[in-house]
Amino acid sequence: MTWQPELDELRLREAHAKMLGGADKIARQHAGGRLTVRERIDGLADAGTFHEIGAIAGKAEYDAAGNLTSLTPSNCVMGRAQIDGRPVMLLGDDFTVRGGSADATIREKPIMAERMAYEFRLPLIRIIEGSGGGGSVKTIETTGRANLPGGVGGGALYHYTGANLSMVPVVGLGLGSVAGLGAARLAATHYSIMTKNTSAMFVAGPPVVKRLGEDLTKQELGGWEIQTKAGAVDHAVDSEEEAFACARRFLSYLPSSVYGTPPVTPCDDDPNRRDEKLFKAIPRDRRRVYQMRPIIDTIVDKGSFFEMGRMFGRSVITGFARFNGMPVALMASDPFFYGGSWTADACAKVIRFVDLAETFHMPVIYLQDCPGFMVGLEAEKAATIRLGVRAMAAVNQTTVPWCTMIIRNAFGVAGVVHQPAGRLSLRYAWLSARWGSLPLEGGIEAGYAADLAAADDRDAKLAEIEDRLNLLRSPFRTAETFWVEEIIDPRDTRRLLCDFAQLAQPLLTPTPSAVKMRP
Predict the structure, then answer these.
(1) Residues 128-179 pLDDT 10s
(2) Residue 269 domain-assigned (yes or no)
(3) Which uninterrupted H or E stretch holds 402?
(4) Which residues sit opposite 178 in a β-bridge?
(5) Given a cut of 90, is residue 375 above it in pLDDT?
């Protein structure tokens, strides 16, 4: 006598579960240019490493004799896997079963996945489509009641959705229409990705907002251009396979949890490499802009810069990079947008980025060219100064090692926020650097109004004052009093930053930060 009948039933139930919502629903998913949840997991995980949990949870039907006739699985597939040889937690919505809505959800499955990521300190990847297990108006009829959001014991999912941000790297992949709770789960990540042609994200979809008088398509309401420019989603790609590659690469820079440090990888790029392009990268004409990203690509380990949030807060560039194999969080000004001034959006971007660096023990490198906060009526309406001082507080609260290269401008209160106050950081200035309480442009008219008004030739007088003050604000004058520690040949930048990354390594402490990460 063996347990073969029970094993046969288990295999039958597993086979039903792998059929997802049925052949017709799978065909519809493919017709829309989207993979199924199981195909997505196969595309993300190392081959053969996915260990599914709760596969046979769902809604079963039986014949009169009590024999199983069918099983519709829960619309959540989850389990442990490996990515690049490292254990992770995968949690995916199955849109082929009731569009991922609450009607087909067994809430214990996503809660267990989130909790397992937290308790076992595993990076978490959420594959989100539909409402992500959220509500549907049909739920009232199918359950016979309305659910109080959260409810008794229902807050566990919301608890771990936030708590995991301070424990493990969390990645969100929005691979279809994502609404309600699904949108919240996509936003509550360290790195989020959408597919350009097949996904959209919104709190409520077009049928709901149409009642408010806004008749919009999914893309008009929450397409990738809307969400990446708003900063709700970090990146958009053309295909799901590209999204998987981005997720894997993002995780490669980070420890598995806050109880580890960023992994160092082998590097064959000479840390002492010098590039002549850097010596002429900054125009002598201060009114001319230049490209910052080629400078970044030149100084980091070749091909290692991984940018995040490119379409949001565009006067600041953020991403991960490696210097001699050592990961860092790299922030840089982009003078092509508002001259590098910090807008309200740029400040919000800085806050989130330095919180991410602090959470996962990543040294920060800042390539600064900031003429100050954005000014004008729109800047005041956006409360730029409030967000600016929040950015200052976020920088000051960091404990990770910090190094700044002043490339060109450092002016005003925003210019102050180039290093944490009250503790040691390394600071270098390029030969092109200049700084002050405010730029001379515009400031001369205010400070020397009487002189200019009395001059026979106002323009000549203005040029004379500007030339005189430019001599006085030479970085060499500042260095005489040690207000700037080192002025360097730009071609030495990579060597010095590789040296900083090495100095930082022993200081990285694999313990949770006192500053808790928020979305």
Answers:
(1) 998 765 556 666 676 676 766 766 566 888 889 889 999 999 999 999 999 9
(2) no
(3) strand 402-411
(4) 130, 201
(5) yes
- The answer on 498 and 366 residing in a single domain is yes
Residue 499's closest CA among 253, 329, 272? 272
Q: Residue 469 in contact with residue 337, Cβ under 8 Å?
A: no
Q: Which residue range is the domain that position 213 belongs to? A: 4-252
Are residues 464 and 429 part of one domain? no
| pLDDT over 80 (residue 284) | yes
Contact 244, 327 (CB under 8 A): no
* pLDDT computed for residue 143 by the predictor: 67
Question: Is residue 519 included in any domain, yes or no?
Answer: no
Contacts 24+ apart (CB under 8 A), 203-208: 203/179, 204/179, 204/180, 205/177, 205/179
pLDDT band at 341 (very low <50, low <70, confident <90, very high): very high
Q: Report angle CA 202, 205, 208 to the nearest 5 degrees.
A: 130
DSSP category for residue 264: P
- Tell me which residue of 156, 159, 188 sits closest to 174, measured CA to CA: 188
CA atoms within 13 A on the CB side of 206: 11
Average pLDDT over residues 349-362: 97
pTM over the 0.85 mark: yes
User: First CA to last CA across the chain, in angstroms?
Assistant: 56
CA geometry: angle 207, 148, 111, nearest 5 deg: 90
pLDDT of residue 453 exceeding 90: no
